[in-house]
Amino acid sequence: MLKNGFTLIELIVVICILGILSIVAVPKFIDTSNDALLAQLDSMEANIQSATYRVYAKAVLQDKLSGSKSVIVDGDSVLTHSGYPIGDWDTALRHVLDLSAQPFSTSICTSTWCGNGNSQNLPGGISTTTGRGAKITPQGYAYTQVCGVYYMNHNDGSKPQIGVLTSGC
Q1: Residue 54 lies in a domain
Q2: Coil, strand or helix at 113
Q3: 103 strand-pairing partners
Q4: Does residue 27 lie in a domain region?
Q5: Residue 64 contacts by C-beta under 8 Å, 6 or more apart in sequence?
Q6: pLDDT tens per residue across span 114-168
Q7: Beta strands across the sheet bearing 148-153
Q8: Residue 126: which of 150, 144, 147 has the closest Cα?
Q9: Which of 37, 83, 136, 137 could form a disulfide with 65 if both were Cys (CB 3.0 to 4.6 A apart)?
Q10: Beta carbons of 99 and 113 less than 8 angstroms apart
Q11: What is the tens place of the pLDDT at every residue in 6-33?
Q12: What pTM, to 2 d.p., does this model score?
């Protein structure tokens, strides 16, 4: 007698193959959220670098390269030292990054980005003796965690130190 359909053995083999494929494929898809976070952090680092050079160019045009000065950028007053934005969230970075609505925060960030600054020591061992720094934290992380983007103006005329912290992500 001829029957149309699958035998029990054929069904078990197919289920086993699908199980093996899912064991191999699922970890690759789970890891993409971390990759997306790292891409976000890299993008913010590039934004900070670009904004820093834009402020420096404005400082050159306004002849404000020595000491602490205020530079007007897109209608906002940005505090600088040596032509670069100071390492403070409230008076510099939030304005040059166009994140004025984003909060100052040391707790878990509930917005897309949160910032905290005006410190000589930042999480991750970033420090200076004469300048100030700030850290921008992505949503879901706290300022104290080593996950975010840092900006450190050493107030010595050198280019600011900008980088990504990922060991706590």
Answers
A1: yes
A2: strand
A3: none
A4: no
A5: 70, 71, 80, 83
A6: 999 899 999 999 999 999 999 999 999 999 999 999 999 999 989 999 999 999 9
A7: 113-119, 132-138, 148-153, 161-165
A8: 150
A9: 83
A10: yes
A11: 788 888 888 988 888 878 877 766 667 7
A12: 0.80
